[in-house]
Specification:
There is one protein chain. With 203 residues, this protein is an alpha+beta fold. Helices cover 27% and strands 38% of the residues. The chain is built from 6 helices and 10 strands. Strand 4 and strand 5 form a beta hairpin.
C-alpha cells in the first residue's frame, strides 16, 4: 500500500467545482487500479473530474460506487453505503466473521507485484491561480508545448480579482509523469499566487 500514490483534496477550492461545471463535470475522490496486458500495475488515489451525469458524478453523500472493467465482461457497477454507523458495523462484523472462519489464513497467496506506478495516461484539468499580467497564457502554453502536451481548451470566467485570477487549461491525454515535469517548469514562473492544481479527467 505504501507504493500507491495519493493526492489530498485540500488544494481543491470552490472555484474548481465552478470550472468543472463549465465542462459538464464534477469532482470526486477516486481510487483507480489497473493491470496491463504486459503485467504492469497502476494505482492511485486522489480527486478527479468525472462527467456530471455519469454514475460517479451522480453518487454523493456517504454512497460509494465501484466500477470494474474486464477484457471480456465489459463494465460492472456496484454501489452502496460506505459510511455511517450501520454500514461500519456491518463491515466490522464481516471482518470478525472472516477472521473466525480463518479465511485469511486459508486464502491463496496473492501474486507478487514488483512495482506499482501512478503514471496513468489521461486528459487533465489544470487550474492556475495568478496575479494577472500580459503574456501569462503564452508562457503557460509554451511550457506545455516544450513537453509535447496539447491544450484542448482554456477557460477563464469573469468577475474574479485580478490579483488572484483563476483560469483553467484542459489538456489532451498525457502521462502523469510528463505533466508533472511540465508543471515543475511552469511553476517557477513569477505570476503564480499558489501552485497549479492538476486533476485527471475520467471519461
Amino acid at each position: 500500500m505504501k507504493d500507491i500514490a495519493t493526492q489530498s483534496i485540500r488544494a481543491i477550492d470552490f472555484v474548481d467545482f465552478h470550472y468543472a461545471k463549465e465542462i459538464d463535470c464534477t469532482i470526486r475522490q477516486i481510487a483507480r487500479a489497473a493491470i496491463e496486458a504486459d503485467g504492469r500495475v497502476f494505482a492511485v488515489v486522489g480527486p478527479a473530474l468525472v462527467p456530471i451525469h455519469s454514475s460517479f458524478g451522480q453518487t454523493g453523500g456517504s454512497q460509494n460506487i465501484v466500477m470494474v472493467r474486464g477484457v471480456f465482461g465489459g463494465e460492472t457497477w456496484f454501489s452502496g453505503s460506505g459510511a455511517g454507523g450501520s454500514p461500519t458495523a456491518v463491515a466490522v462484523v464481516s471482518d470478525l466473521l472472516s477472521i473466525d472462519r480463518q479465511t485469511l489464513r486459508d486464502a491463496p497467496a496473492s501474486t507478487s507485484v514488483s512495482e506499482v506506478s501512478n503514471d496513468f495516461v489521461a486528459p487533465h484539468y489544470v487550474r492556475f491561480m495568478v496575479a494577472d499580467r500580459p503574456g501569462i497564457l503564452a508562457e503557460v502554453c509554451a511550457g506545455f508545448a516544450r513537453h509535447g502536451i496539447n491544450i484542448e481548451a482554456v477557460v477563464q470566467l469573469p468577475r474574479y480579482r485580478k490579483d488572484r485570477l483563476p483560469f483553467v487549461a484542459t489538456l489532451e491525454a498525457c502521462a502523469a509523469s510528463v505533466l508533472g515535469r511540465a508543471l515543475a517548469e511552469i511553476t517557477t514562473l513569477d505570476f503564480h499566487v499558489e501552485p497549479p492544481l492538476a486533476l485527471p479527467i475520467l471519461t
